[in-house]
Design a protein that fits this description.
The protein is an alpha/beta fold. 31% of the residues lie in helices and 18% in strands. The chain contains 8 helices and 8 strands; from the N terminus they run E-H-E-H-E-H-E-H-E-E-H-E-H-E-H-H. It has an 8-stranded parallel sheet with strand order 1-8-7-6-5-4-3-2. Strand 7, helix 6 and strand 8 form a beta-alpha-beta unit. The protein binds D-xylitol-5-phosphate (DX5) and zinc ion (ZN).
């Protein structure tokens, strides 16, 4: 099956002094989603932004805001991010002892709920929550920083998640995050990814944001599922 692949620029690699301009450029270039990385300095060894910045971004784009919470006990903050205008909130299973409950909490706020799998986290964590999930985010690097190298050993995991979603009849997004570029994008799409998160390949591209997005799109236009 040949899926239309969505592109989600990660603003982590944009110039934080000009985030609004970066998002406008990405939107004008045909981005489908804006990926926002929230880090707390505990769950990952880096700190970024919180709800006030998400609220500011909400004003400059009508694209879905896909907010990736790399924070401990995300249940404390999902309401604030929902009020700030997040369309999707993705949490890591290791960050909460109540994954099932926080996914219900997110959906209860009228927001789409996501689960993100670190490189060492098996896809089996999805088993009892797949019905509560609108997005699975497979990390293809260890979270915390942009610009890292893609981990090819994650390809079988992407295919395994594809199988879990299909078996459950789930239309959840299968997004990949980390080291995505014109070389790795066709591989992840061939293994079943529907959404590509890309930071440095878009916002640090010498050729500019528009050319980078169109190159990424072009790289997957012929990719097909292996399944
Ligand atoms: C990493 C973040 C990613 C990051 C990806 O922890 O979750 O979204 O921005 O950056 P690149 O595309 O440069 O690997
Ligand atoms: Zn991310």
């Amino acid at each position: 099956m040949n899926r239309y692949v969505r592109i989600a620029p990660s603003i982590l690699s944009a110039d934080f002094a000009y985030l609004g301009a970066a998002i406008e450029m990405a939107e004008a270039a045909g981005a489908d989603v804006i990926h926002v990385d929230v880090m707390d300095g505990h769950f990952v060894p880096n700190m970024t932004i919180g709800p006030p910045v998400v609220a500011a971004l909400r004003k400059v784009t009508s694209l879905p805001l896909d907010v990736h919470l790399m924070i401990e006990t995300p249940e404390r903050y999902v309401e604030a991010f929902a009020q700030a205008g997040a369309d999707m909130l993705t949490v890591h299973p290791e960050a909460t002892v109540h994954l099932h409950q926080v996914l219900r909490q997110i959906r209860g706020l009228g927001v789409q709920a996501g689960v993100s799998l670190n490189p060492a986290t098996p896809e089996s964590v999805l088993r009892y929550v797949v019905g509560l999930v609108d997005l699975v985010l497979v990390m293809t690097v260890n979270p915390g920083f942009g610009g890292q190298d893609f981990l090819p050993e994650m390809l079988p995991k992407i295919a395994a998640v594809r199988g879990i979603l299909d078996a459950a009849g789930s239309a959840a997004w299968l997004s990949v995050d980390g080291g995505i570029n014109v070389e790795t994008a066709p591989l992840v799409v061939a293994h079943g990814a529907t959404h590509l998160v890309a930071g440095s390949a878009i916002f640090a591209a010498a050729e500019g944001v528009a050319a980078a997005i169109s190159a990424l799109r072009g790289s997957v236009s012929a990719a097909r599922d292996v399944a």
